[in-house]
């Protein structure tokens, strides 16, 4: 049976959008279907799937990583999701979107979108090992788990084809790992190895974790905008006086069609 899909990305973190308003088209969305959709040669290709389900008066973003696993939250994904809801479902800005990490508010910011990503949890110190080298890391939850690692140069993390080793007692469900270098005042660049997807061109929740950890290290006043460069573009993150992370960045829909995958 064929069904509609759209394809979109935010800073080249790319997603297959599956409209499923009454939740009847995709059932419980089996992991093998997600993997088939995200496969870059035989499928549509994507770092994850955003299933759009109506819930009450609003919409629920059902996020799946490209390996079929479920995640609580996706920062680039929610901007693409909002773009879809605005352009195809006629939802006005600002809009509220339900996620496994609670309700997020999205607003238009010129051509870009701003997501209120809520309050981060800055947790303890940990360590990750990549290419045989162990680095100190900061554990932050921005709805999903992150380990933020400062490095001297982004090439140090190598090809990132393998998952960085982490402490299973701290991250029993796995972790997203960000490698960060400083570029200037309130300006950093990062690469990411995403849980359930491998190295991607960007990670919105990861950029938020990086901005929070860097801002703490800098002792920067709340409200200072941080520029976070990722391989696929740039995100701007503000950690506000009331402790919320506001993430601004692009979100575009690039294709739509029907698939029987
Ligand atoms: N790309 C995302 C994060 C997607 C989920 C992540 N891989 C996880 O398993 O937690 C983003 O933009 O935040």
UniProtKB/TrEMBL annotation:
Site label Could be important to modulate the pK values of the two catalytic cysteine residues, positions: 146, 194
GO BP field: lysine biosynthetic process via diaminopimelate
Coiled-coil positions: none
Catalytic reaction list: (2S,6S)-2,6-diaminopimelate = meso-2,6-diaminopimelate
UniProt record similarity statement: Belongs to the diaminopimelate epimerase family.
Cited HAMAP family: DAP_epimerase
Protein name: Diaminopimelate epimerase
Species per Swiss-Prot/TrEMBL record: Nocardioides alpinus
